[in-house]
Amino acid sequence: MTALTPKRLGLFGGTFNPIHYGHLRTAEEVVEALGLTRLWFIPAAQPPHKGGQYITPFATRLEMTRLAVGRHPRITVSDIEGRRPGKSYSIETLRQVRAQQGPDWELYFILGLDAILEITTWKDYAELFTLCHFVALDRPGYDRSQLEAVLRREVHPPCRPLPGGTGFQHPSGYKIILLGTTLMDISATRIRRLVEEGRSIRYLLPEKVRRYIIKNKLYA
User: Fold this and answer.
1) How many domains does the chain fold into?
2) What per-residue confidence (pLDDT) applies to 90?
């Protein structure tokens, strides 16, 4: 018998305040590179790392993300963290998705190299690596060689390198995959600042999102 092709779900979390072409192109390339069946953008309802600073309401960021994605055949937007009270901890989201999707789905948790290098600041971070594969995306100014030390010292000493410098194997059986995508010098922080200064944000993010920001007087 021919083995069934596994169903692969990518989970791409973030504040998305607002979502822009850097996020969207990254998602497209990750789907293609890993052969994902689905990818969910997951806006954080209450980002735990943002401290007490003001964050645009969840419903607004969710709507902008939905406008940006549109009717993509494999990428969609999940409101899973908005339906759960309290801070949006990734460990709780992964536990919930794992329980809902069942064992037939392989989960791929997508984050930047900068974020995984600070993984020890996350709630129950060691358990994360026992629930899914990780996809660590290159970020400007961050060196892949730093990751091995973090994994061996803070996560699990037996983490071993995969062939060709493509990532690491965790003792749980899940992998930490290193992936390069098109690097775009776009940031949500800069977009918000441009709006505040009355300058153009055209071509930094989808036109539907730009119009939504202007119509609702966001970031001004």
Assistant:
1) 1
2) 96
